[in-house]
Amino acid sequence: MAKVAKPNVFRGTVEEYRALYMEKNAHLEQFLEQITPFEFYREIFPEGSFERQGHFEDSKPNGIAVHLPGKGGSINGIALEIEGDGTAKRYIITDDLRKLDELKETDFTIMSPISYFGKSRSGKFARFLYALAFDLDGVGMPQLRDVLHQMNKGILPKATFVVNSGTGLHLYYVLTEPVPMYPQNQHYLKELKYSLTRQIWNRFTSYIQQPQMQGLMQGFRVVGSGTKLGKGYPVVAFRVGDRVELDALLEYIPSSNGERQKLEGILRKSSMPLAEAKEKYPDWYERRIVKGERRGRWTVKRDLYDWWLRRIRDEIRVGHRYHGVMTLAIYAKKCGIEEAELRQDAYSLLLPYDEMSIEEVNRFTRDDVEAALSMFNEDYVTFPRDDIARLSGMTMPVNKRNWRKRAEHLKRCRIIQQANDMVDGTDWRARNGRKDKRNLVSDYMCAHPEVKKKTEIARALQIDRGTVAKYYDEILEELQSE
Fold first, then answer.
1. Contacts of residue 246, Cβ cutoff 8 Å, sequence gap at least 6
2. Of the given ranges (24-33, 61-70, 111-120), which has the lowest mean pLDDT?
3. Nearest-angstrom CA–CA distance, 433 and 3
4. How far is CA 440 from CA 76, 404, 414, in A?
5. Is 356 helix (H, G, I), strand (E, B) or coil?
């Protein structure tokens, strides 16, 4: 019996995709106002957002834009150009936005709606988020019509701009006020973006069943530059609605499954002023704000890296290939793998990943590998496990022994306990010393390295959170240096 094609699923040649691109533009022009690239970016980044060209005394952040010729994956928030020697060149976008005009003729240039200090795209140098942007793939004409319908009926939040990116859509929600990219704000915004992605990416708006989760600082093709279909088919922007209030987007998150309540809780924590945090958590303030120390992290054996490499070879699916290599780079840094070994492993995936391609316009290339390898960076070693699961589209079982065998793990814990007893003159088994609670915390942290939050440790031990905070940093340092 012949197979019946799924309705509304488009699989075609490059020529057919180009025809679909033109049809989408014609449909959008019927109902919406097309705007120029300058108007698009001026609305996202109002005059005065960036430093004036050559005026370093302004001491303001700038945009950062990355061109990868031919085919692109995504690189968080910057426009890079891969030149003849294969090196990446960053473009700083100043307040006049003139550099973006120069980049319009490139075939793959991306930028995120974020300002940065310096030339690094690292989250720790991000200053303000000006818009939440979403990449919606698997969009044919039925899906395009339904996206607009759901926005008009209030089923989805009305975007400020809809962008025809070639084979899909980019939806931009320009915020009424830019949001400072403090770490606690980044956590809230990331979770909000994940929740909204699940609402925007539904069975009517995309013929791809599983939503493709993207990070907060994901880069998007520059409006006016080329799409996957070629320079003659540029990225085009259309105005849909007004700027949006960040809190108003929460109304589109369902409350039935607890997602909205979770986000509201994160928002309450994120809104704590630094002055209040300094008073409540003086040790944290001294280390992280005054001294600028990095957050502590666990060192993991290479078993985790090898396990993940095996999984992304066997289990990865189209739509998650880039993120598979990206997370491999994160684990390589976390597990102490040399860059040369990482690159060899990453490029071993190039051919099998490319052979998965269903469409000519969705090939997996060396540029995708290079873009993903940019995550081999100390700034990403604390990338959350749940985020890796979302981006890779694969489940992440919890290993509570830091990827050690149980006997080895418990032996290490007992050595630490004995050393503490020798120094403190106590016996943790008899619970006979002033340091009894410290040992409780130490034992728990050793046995449960995946638990990082002091509140969770306190709740598990049924002791005061302040007691956990008193010993936490000292114990963490001991465990990391074992």
1. 175, 176, 177, 179, 192
2. 61-70
3. 73
4. 41, 21, 12
5. coil
